[in-house]
Amino acid sequence: MSLNILVVGAGCAGPAFAHLLQKVSPSHNITVIERFSSLRTGGQQIDLKSQGVPITKGMGILPELKAACVHETGMQLVDKNGKSLMGFGINSAATGQGFNLTNEYEIMRGDMVNVFYDGSIAERQKIEKNGGKEGSLTYKFNTTMTQFTQTENGVDVTFSNGEKQHFDLVVAADGQNSRTRRTTFGDDINEKSFRTLGIHGAYYNIPRLESDDSDARIHFAPGGRMIMTRTGDRPITQVYLFIMRDKARHEHFKSVHKLPLDQQKEEWANTFKDAGWQCDRFMEGLKNTTDFYAHELGQVHMPKLYSGRVVLLGDAGYCPSPFTGMGTTLSLIGSYILAGELAKHDKNIEAALQAYHELMQPPLEKYQRFFGGSNTGFYPSSQLGITVTNHVLWALSSLRVDKLMLWMGGWLPAKKDDWKMPVYPGLSLVEDTKE
Ligand SMILES: Cc1cc2nc3c(=O)[nH]c(=O)nc-3n(C[C@H](O)[C@H](O)[C@H](O)COP(=O)(O)OP(=O)(O)OC[C@H]3O[C@@H](n4cnc5c(N)ncnc54)[C@H](O)[C@@H]3O)c2cc1C
Ligand SMILES: *[C@@H]1O[C@H](CO)[C@@H](O)[C@H](O)[C@H]1NC(C)=O
Ligand SMILES: *[C@@H]1O[C@H](CO)[C@@H](O)[C@H](O)[C@H]1NC(C)=O
Ligand SMILES: *[C@@H]1O[C@H](CO)[C@@H](O)[C@H](O)[C@H]1NC(C)=O
Ligand SMILES: *[C@@H]1O[C@H](CO)[C@@H](O)[C@H](O)[C@H]1NC(C)=O
């Protein structure tokens, strides 16, 4: 049976889902809408790992992702003068073994989004070349839903350009602050679903200097401020600013994210101008940058991943926060399972959505967790004070140095990988998962 499906958001999850769904069900009509007038390619290095690897391999886009990888050499903690306090290299003298600080697949978010988008379009072309006449894939930019009403067998949607259309299913892939989630589930559930880490982050790029090598660098400034740079083998230097462990600033920055971009930048500049290290350069670069992105860090935990014919995908449904490094991988797992279950249950969309909700619970349980502890236990309560150990742990976690952490004292228990992805005919991942 072919369906009319609307995907809201062309970030990572939207295009990846469109790609996978076409693979199992080429006869669906898929429309992807994106609020921005082009692909939104901002963002910094993001990870592709665990099940994300076989999934993208099955999609046939792993070579493109590999080619886009950023290569980092190590990480250094620096003081206010930029002097290295501690360094972690690729080859650790301590263990005599080489281990890579960063993940196998570290890719700039913009490159990742482009690869997913191109992949979804190439899949359509492949279907048409092989004589597929039914089904379609349409991207509409600068488009949002201004209104949507659930009916017995679907959703009546009004778009921002005034057009109206009926869909059998709406897939909300509109990110951490999903408007579709809020409208569908209501303000109350929406607010409760967001578990803040009490941390705010801003990310942007500045020109690389000759003196920049390919190590990541982290500096902890007083007042719960942290600055990280990552350059790798890129012509740009990524700057990450974090505010943490400061209640007043936390409250203040909640409202900063709603300000116009220029004012947001000004707030960040005021907060970091005296943070030492190369802050003059970073604040100058902040003024110039065109790819500034800031948010409150937290996780989304929804009691249910769908309501009627609206289903949540990716960060919209289960943002794990950047500190887990699992956002993109989880959105791929979700895309894979949702596409697979829709195909498996054919006419019964309700059953497919329920199966998706249930099958997502084990990977969510596993990957939304920090340090193997509880979801909220990651951010130690303030009475513990700011200790260097915490800082180091925190910094390492943001780089996802799993192996290093294991070695440093077994904070991250080696959990048996007891969860296996379901297998679907049509999503030829069987041999791919047996790496
Ligand atoms: C600009 C940007 C920068 C990011 N930078 C980082 C980073 O540096 N590190 C990190 O770990 N994670 C980052 N993320 C989050 C990361 O992309 C996700 O965790 C992960 O890839 C899952 O992707 P997603 O598609 O679910 O959400 P997202 O990648 O957030 O994509 C959501 C998409 O939906 C669009 N959208 C939002 N609202 C609407 C609407 N109402 N109608 C239509 N479209 C809408 C957005 O413009 C966006 O294109 C960033 C996200 C964005 C949008
Ligand atoms: C898909 O689109 C085609 C072309 O517009 C249309 O003929 C067909 O009925 C649509 N299918 C569904 C399920 O809406
Ligand atoms: C580190 O990465 C390099 C290059 O990708 C690879 O050849 C090497 O095997 C990796 N080392 C470890 C210990 O994973
Ligand atoms: C975006 O859409 C709005 C409303 O449909 C329209 O007024 C505006 O001109 C569009 N902008 C671009 C850049 O296409
Ligand atoms: C910012 O832009 C100005 C004017 O274009 C330029 O002179 C300056 O070098 C830029 N600074 C950085 C850090 O890129």
Automatic annotation (TrEMBL):
It comes from the Eukaryota. GO terms for molecular function: FAD binding; oxidoreductase activity. Keywords: FAD, Flavoprotein, Oxidoreductase. The keyword Flavoprotein applies. The keyword Ribosomal protein does not apply. Residues 4-358 form the FAD-binding domain. This is FAD-binding domain-containing protein.
